[in-house]
Specification:
Blueprint (H helix, E strand, L loop, with lengths): L2 E11 L2 E10 L2 E6 L8 E4 L4 E4 L1 E6 L12 H10 L2 E6 L10 H14 L3 E4 L1 E2 L6 H9 L5 E4 L2 E4 L4 E4 L8 E2 L4 H14 L3 E4 L3 H6 L7 H7 L2 H15 L6 E3 L5 H12 L4 E5 L1 H5 L5 H4 L12 H12 L5 E2 L8 H4 L16 H11 L5 H13 L17 E5 L4 E2 L18 E2 L2 E7 L2 E2 L19
Parallel strand pairs: 1-4, 1-5, 6-7, 7-8, 9-10, 10-14, 14-15, 15-16, 16-17
Antiparallel strand pairs: 1-2, 2-3, 5-18, 11-12, 11-13, 18-21, 19-20, 21-22
Bound molecules: zinc ion.
């Protein structure tokens, strides 16, 4: 039996922060008490430190299988481990896309062979997906379903790609509101969330234009596209009772649409990202192409509305939409540069900083750990520093400083949007089921599955 005693830290417990020892046996938290005697345990002195539950990033793109030159499960989870993220939930637009139980199982085996932290897998909804396919993916352990409105499916390449309207016979039409209406009752019965990439294709088509500058980029992806998608998806899914999850919420208008739908009785969970909470369009000149992403980083008014939504608890989850590319793909002229950037390594620190700025640093583990763990059906094993939970723990020095620098990043794309930012915290160590993973290269990650799936 391996034993660990983390002594004297400021522990984030479900009842709030308190000074305590954390006793871990065989990877599971055995006790959280003011003073624990455990002779023989490996002792970790944590006086003056925060002891936080490991982060759960509900929205990452491993690129694996498909684009190992951009990222793979090893580089993704090395970055996650360095940043205190002990569970990553990977989106289904890898290649081949995760549209069947067989693909999900092969991807799980691949991830298991490389992952340094735990992982869960999202499943894809296509416009042709059947109830049987969804049931089989749920039985195979899918964490939830994702529908990319406005993204076609290449039949030959088995790949999701941005291309809303096309006569190309190789491209299957994107899932639309009809697809959501048809499949929502099935997903509701399975007890899993249905996430959307919330950009309405008709609004995008109306605002389509050549994109040479950041302002063109913003004009081509207006907040109306987000608001329309949220309203319409909520309207067609409301009767089913399914949980609609809005990925990477980016605008005041989108938030307003979600709140209106919630008041009308829709079951909605909202996720936003550090880049929308800490940055605005004004940062483009400083940051450059790393800021090219979808949806875009918008105005100060949008940022302020999202921070306020998070403060009020309407937005409960902060994820990253971690989406790296190669340096070559990011350094092309703006109109050709790839969309997306990394974020998983700076998620926890950026949220601690934001929570501190809002006056309550203990909000951060809720946004990054307990709320996302519950969202993903992992509320019995993850997201809490309490007896019976996995010993996924992050030791943070609240007097440390971290300046985000390319050289410290572990993703294949090292230059991200947080580059140069300084946080008033430093991560000292990270444990996955009782073993330090911050500097380890062991592939100890396991697949997580939601606890309450009806299949
Ligand atoms: Zn994404």
């Amino acid at each position: 039996m391996t034993e660990l005693l983390i002594r004297g830290g400021s522990v984030h417990t479900p009842e709030g922060p308190r000074q305590a020892d954390v006793h871990v046996t065989d990877g599971v938290i055995a006790a959280v008490e003011p003073s624990i005697d455990a002779p023989g345990a490996n002792l970790v002195e944590a006086r003056g430190m925060y002891v936080l539950p490991g982060g759960v990033d509900v929205h990452v793109h491993s690129r694996d299988p498909g684009y190992p030159e951009k990222e793979d499960f090893a580089s993704l989870t090395t970055a996650a481990a360095a940043g205190g993220i002990t569970v990553v939930l990977d989106m289904p637009n890898t290649v081949p896309a995760v549209d069947s139980a067989g693909v999900l199982e092969s991807k799980a085996a691949l991830a298991h062979s490389k992952a340094r932290v735990d992982f869960g897998l999202w499943a894809l909804i296509r416009s042709t997906s059947t109830p049987e396919q969804l049931e089989a993916m749920a039985a195979a352990g899918a964490i939830g379903f994702k529908a990319y409105l406005a993204y076609s499916f290449s039949l030959s390449r088995k790949q999701v790609q941005y291309s809303p309207g096309s006569d190309d016979p190789d491209l299957e039409a994107p899932p639309d509101y009809g697809t959501l209406a048809k499949l929502a009752p099935v997903v509701a019965r399975l007890g899993l969330p249905l996430a959307i990439h919330a950009e309405d294709p008709a609004v995008l088509a109306a605002f389509h234009r050549p994109v040479f500058t950041y302002q063109d980029w913003l004009a081509s992806r207006p907040p109306e596209a987000e608001a329309a998608a949220v309203s319409a998806a909520a309207a067609v899914m409301r009767e089913s009772g399914v949980q609609l999850h809005v990925a990477h919420l980016s605008s005041a208008l989108g938030l307003q649409a979600a709140e209106d739908a919630m008041r009308a009785g829709a079951s909605i969970s909202l996720e936003t990202c550090p880049q929308f909470l800490l940055l605005t369009e004004q940062d483009f000149d400083r940051i450059g192409h790393a800021m090219k992403m979808l949806p875009p980083i918008r105005s100060a008014a949008d940022r302020d509305a999202l921070v306020d939504g998070l403060r009020r608890g309407v937005i409960s989850i902060v994820s990253t939409d971690h989406a790296p590319h190669t340096d070559e793909e990011k350094s092309r002229p703006f109109h050709e540069a790839a969309s997306g950037s990394p974020g998983v390594q700076t998620l926890y620190l950026s949220c601690l900083q934001l929570a501190k700025n809002l006056g309550d640093v203990w909000l951060a583990p809720r946004w990054v750990s307990s709320a996302p763990a519950t969202f993903a059906g992992l509320q019995e094993s993850k997201g809490s520093v309490a007896p019976g939970f996995d010993a996924d723990l992050v030791i943070v020095d609240p007097k440390g400083k971290t300046q985000v620098a390319e050289g410290d990043m572990h993703s294949r794309q090292r230059h991200g949007v947080m580059e140069g930012m300084e946080f008033d915290f430093a991560i000292k160590d990270v444990y996955l089921r009782g073993e330090s993973v911050m500097r380890s290269t062991k592939a100890r990650g396991r697949m997580v599955r939601p606890a309450l799936v009806a299949t």
